[in-house]
Structures are given as structure tokens and as C-alpha cells.
Amino acid sequence: MAKKNAFYAQSGGVTAVINASACGVIETARKHKDKIGKIYAGRNGILGALTEDLIDTGKESDSAIAALRSTPAGAFGSCRYKLKSLETSRREYERLIEVFKAHNIGTFFYNGGGDSADTCFKISQLAQSLGYPIQAIHVPKTVDNDLPITDCCPGFGSVAKYVAVSTLEASFDVRSMSSTSTKIFVLEVMGRHAGWIAAAGGLLVDHNIPVVILFPEVVFDQKKFLERVSAKVKQHGYCTVVVSEGCHHADGRYLAEQGTRDAFGHAQLGGAAPVVAGMIKDALGVKIHWAVADYLQRSARHIASKTDVKQAYELGRAAVNLALKGHNAVMPTIERISDVPYKYRIGVADLKDVANVEKFMPKNFISADGFGITEKCKRYLTPLIQGEDYPRYVGGLPDYVTLKNVAVAKKLKPFKIQSA
Amino acid sequence: MAKKNAFYAQSGGVTAVINASACGVIETARKHKDKIGKIYAGRNGILGALTEDLIDTGKESDSAIAALRSTPAGAFGSCRYKLKSLETSRREYERLIEVFKAHNIGTFFYNGGGDSADTCFKISQLAQSLGYPIQAIHVPKTVDNDLPITDCCPGFGSVAKYVAVSTLEASFDVRSMSSTSTKIFVLEVMGRHAGWIAAAGGLLVDHNIPVVILFPEVVFDQKKFLERVSAKVKQHGYCTVVVSEGCHHADGRYLAEQGTRDAFGHAQLGGAAPVVAGMIKDALGVKIHWAVADYLQRSARHIASKTDVKQAYELGRAAVNLALKGHNAVMPTIERISDVPYKYRIGVADLKDVANVEKFMPKNFISADGFGITEKCKRYLTPLIQGEDYPRYVGGLPDYVTLKNVAVAKKLKPFKIQSA
Fold this sequence. Notes:
2 copies of one chain form a homodimer. By secondary structure, chain A is of the alpha/beta class. Chain A is built from 13 helices and 13 strands.
């Protein structure tokens, strides 16, 4: 078989370690020059493939590629662009194949979450039927930790570590202030449907710090919540609340959607934390501080989990090795062998089993009262935040790399994407 | 002169390094057992002195005291309780002297900002006039960096590092997403009156990242601001905004005070970031993300500046040395000798010159357009964020110390404080 090129793209919300997977893919592919030709990347994810805006990663030095391992966010640009069904988006799937064909691309590495696993699977199917076979390999990535089969997803361990560390630090702060000032600190974290990130706030359970967690998996019960917070403040003098952005009422409305308007009647961009803070203030009349971590949590490479960085890299490497072994429509996974000591191996899942399945927190990971995590959850989470993997600093700031991202000459006519 | 005891208290909003100053005070005092007896701490700051709720730091091991150096927040508890003038609060000042007398306390180390410098000064004055002389030494602490005379304040360098690192990381994130999704990221930071913290976002100036800063020192001009953000998005495809909580309109109203109400008419707890985000969204119609760092920024010991930790410790040590040399009503300071290489020495300021003076950003630290920092400001800030001083981690979390805080037996009648 003649040597073909490879294509790599980043998809969806970026993480602190998605570039570590890119590093794993590119460094491993570079070691197999006999079997893999050029390694292209999509500028801004799959959009780069659709618009034939390819990046030649061969123009990047080995040290620049190595630096990806400790650089957050998406070095080639990511995108939020979901290809729909083969019927609806057929023109776009066909365009992808055309671009791959024009650039002699034989392997498609797609680094993303559930949606991109689905896209990856469909590309592989269509390519077969169009007679231009593509090996489509999905590299898992999502801070939401909601992909099935794999024990965890790269990106999650680092955001979990960020949330656990931040909750610990802010709790020390509010504890110091509570005698005369702030008694409650509310931290809003990501997780629209799954409460994995919020659960990380529960890792402080052995530090005798009162933490109340609001999960998207548990319907919000205002009365019960306020009673719980009030009891914690009575007992400890203070309390920390970790609220998931996806926390919602029984009718499905997010807490953040309070119909909040400013003095001019403009709708305000939501936030669950200020809503929860306002609620507590109205009910308990105590001073409250709140924070919304937003992008800070998922880009916090400075406090990434070493375990997470390692797994992100390993899954990138495994993706290339799967391709070299002839696999198609698969995703390398983390298979946990034991909690203590933490042991895992790299497994493989068929994309047909991954696409469009969302993994929520199991019931037995959430404590009976709905406001905390169980011992079982703690055993699951603890290994994932182990170890620190500090970036190099120059002049007081992390020495994150910005690649040159040199474009590959186009060979096809322009393509108008449906919407972006 | 007979050996007397010492008293140490933490005041106001805590920081990532105030305990490093406590460590400097206690470790240094412990080395002078011939001159300093017991070292007491106030439980919850000055309230502990007023209510005779003293902590015997002698009950803490050397290793627990050493661990203070890398533990954020106030290990003995802080408080927001401002003693007023000697006339208004005379009963309380006298009570302090009574408690000091009852426990044979000869030195008062007060670790705080402008208000506590004022209190410290008054105690020293009153003690003289009541014939029970107290050496009152102030140890500077404030994330706001607004104390006069000293070149910088412990606590500031670490929050500046946190803000600079977070702005860099989140900017990498929004840059990755900007082609199809979020184009602007807004980060709200502390600083009610002085823009030192927001200025730290400008340290990315050499990273080719578009950052627009909103200072409390510059009256908010919505039109000019939106034009500036729009221009940055046109040029770079994305933009990061760092907004100080103290940013305000010409009439003095904070941006956060938008009269925001929820659907039930409840006032919402403010936040400048969501207001700025809403404003940009209305004007430019692009997708925006926002974060409010709140306590996270000042408790982030995990990313503390090594320079800041060192100076916090050194100023605690210097306070004890000043006491041993017989000084009274003074505060050790940082005197900068040079920017590059960064050199400084420990100086000393009279408290009468420190109390009630607030240091704002000099005009020549803010760029002509009002949205950035000057080269001069960068030269000032850069040394303060240098170096990392990582805490020890156990089980994936920082190993922060919680002291035993054993109470000293009371000798006086209870005292009712005016208000807390």
C-alpha cells in the first residue's frame, strides 16, 4: 500500500490537555515516516477540512510539537460545527472525502467528544461506500467526562483537579472571613448535563470542609438546599457551594435562566452562581461571595493533573498505533484495572458504540441527600487528579507555544459551508 | 526589661501569602526566646483581642508553623472590623490595652491593609498615654496593592500572577474557539478603587494577545470601549476583556450596579463581568463567555508568586526584628532598588505616614487610550510575578495546614463588642 498522509483535527470546547493528545498523535506519526506521509491538521477543526484549510504540521519543529504537551486550548483552532445525518449533510461528508482524496489522506484522527465521535463514525462509513476508504480514529476529549466505554476522558482529570484545588482554597478563605464577613462561597462550574465536574468539589470530604454540591442529575429543591446550607453554616460557621451550570428546576429550566433583566430591560447573560447566591442571601441574610470559573477551569494548564496529561498523550499515541494496525472506526479508551494503586491500560472501543451515548454520574456516586459524593465516587475521582505536571515558566508566565500553522496549498475549488 | 509576650493578628480580606507573613513572625520570634515570651494570635483578628480569645501558637509544632508559608487564607481567622477614632471607639482601644496587660503582651503585630495600619498606629498612641507601652508593628498585606511608601504589598504579586496566568490561558481558549463560537472572554477581577490587579492582565502584551482592560481609575466610556473591543475582534478574531470590579460610570455608579432584578423582582448580587458581557452582546451580537474570579484569585496559593511569598515571609521576619530593635508604630516596607535585575531591600515606614493613604495606579502606568498598561507599568509589575512556589501535594490536593488553634485561658470579664 502506497504511503498516505494523515489528518488531525480538534473539535468542540477545548481543554487543558487536548494539545497533549495532538502531541501524542504527531510525535508518534513522525516516528513512522515509512508508513505515514505528511501530518496535516485542520485549521479550526473540521471546518479546515471542509474549506480545505489544512495546516502542514511538518513545518513545526520537534520542540514546538513537544511543547504542545504543556500548552492548553486548541493549537490548530477548534470549532463548534456539527455535521448532521448522512442524508442532511451528505454534501459536506462528500466534500470531506474529496479533500482527503485531493491531499492523499488515508487516516483521519478526530479529537473531540460525543458529536465528533459520531462524525468520525459517519465519515468512515461513507468513505467505504464511496470507494475511498479512510481509517477514521476518534481521540476522546471532553471536560464533561460524558463519553461511554472509556473509564474517563482526557480533559476531565485536569478540570476536576482545578475545581478541587479551587474549592479547597476558597473554602480556606471563607473560613477565615466567616466570623464577621462572608459566610458562604458559591462556585459555579461547567457541566450542562453531567455532574462529573461539580463532583470534584466533593473531594475535600476528608478535609472537614462543609461543601454542598448541586448536580444537574438532581432536580433542584430550593427548600431542601437552603436547609442544608443553613445547617452547615450553623455547624461550621461557613459553607462552600459548588453549583453545576446545568443545575435545573423540576420543569427543566436551568437555575441560570431566571429571566434576569437589567434596569433597561435587557436580558442578562446567565450564571447559576449569582442566582444561588441571591437565593441564599434572601433566605439567610448572610454575606455571600460567588465566582464563575467558566473558561478558567478548562484552560488551567498550570494546575493540570499529571495523570490526565499522561493519558491524553497516550491516547493520541494509541490512536496512531491503532491506525498502523489497520483499525477503523474506533476510539482508544482508558480501561481501569484498579483504584488503589491506580492502574489502567489502553483499550479500544468501536465508534458505533460511542457515538451519541452520554454518560451521566451513576446514582451510587451521589450521596443519598443529593448534595455530595459517595465513597465510591471518591475512589473513582481520586486517581484522576493525581500528580502535577507544571509547564515551564518564562518571565513569570507559562511558556505556552503558539504554532506557526502554515497553510497547505489548496487544490480544490472553494466550498461554501452551510452555516458556522 | 522583663520578657514580654507578643500578639499577632490578621485583618481584613485574606490573601494567598498572609500566612507566609505569620510564618515569618512566629519563626523569627521563636528564635528569640530570650527576649520574646509566648506568641499569641488573635482568633479572628482583632476581635480575638477584644474578646480575649487568644490562641497559643506555642501549641503548634515547628512543622505546622513552617507549613503556614505555603497555606493560603488566614490560619487564625481574620475579620472585617474597623476600630474608629480614639474618641468614638475609646472603650475598645482601652479594652485592647487591658487584654494586652492581662496577658503581659509587649508587642502587637498587626497584619493587614490601610485600616489596620490606622488601628495599629492608634493603639501605639493610646498605649503610651495609658502608661502601658505597646510596640505596635504593622505587617503590610493587601491584594489591592494600595498601601503607600512600600513599593508593593504582600498578596498582590500572587493575585497578579493568578490574573496574568488566567488571562493568558483563557485567551488561548477563546482564540481556539473564535472561528465558530465564542469571540470574547470577559474576566472580572478585584480592585474596588485601585486597578493594580486588573493591570496584571496587561502583562500578556508581548504574547500578541488582544487584551482590553477596564480600570477603576478610568471613567467607563461605553462607546469607546465597544469600539475598542470591536476593533480588536476585527484584527485578531477574538478579544479578552479584564474588568476591575471597581470600574464605574462618570456618576460614580459601579458597572455592577445595573439595578439588575430577576423575574421575581429580587435584586441580583452584582458582577461587572456579566454586565460588560451583556453590553458587548447587545452591541456586537457575538458569543461571549465571562468569568468572575472572586475569592479564587486571592486564595490561589497553588500559583503564588515566589517573589511574593518570599517578601511576605521577609516582612513578617522584619517586623519582629524591628520590635527587637525597639521600634514602635512602624511598618517594614519593600524598597525597590532596580527593575532589571530585580533588587529590593527591606525598609521601614512610620505608621503615621501609612494610615489612611490609598495608593492608586499612577497616570503614566495606564496607556493613553485608558485600556491598557504602559511599558513603565510592565517594568513595575513583571518582577512581582516572578517565580513559582508550589505547595506540597498529597492525594492530588495541596497539603495546606489547619492549625489546632488552642485557646489561652481567659483572665478578664467578658467584653461586649459594639458590632461585628
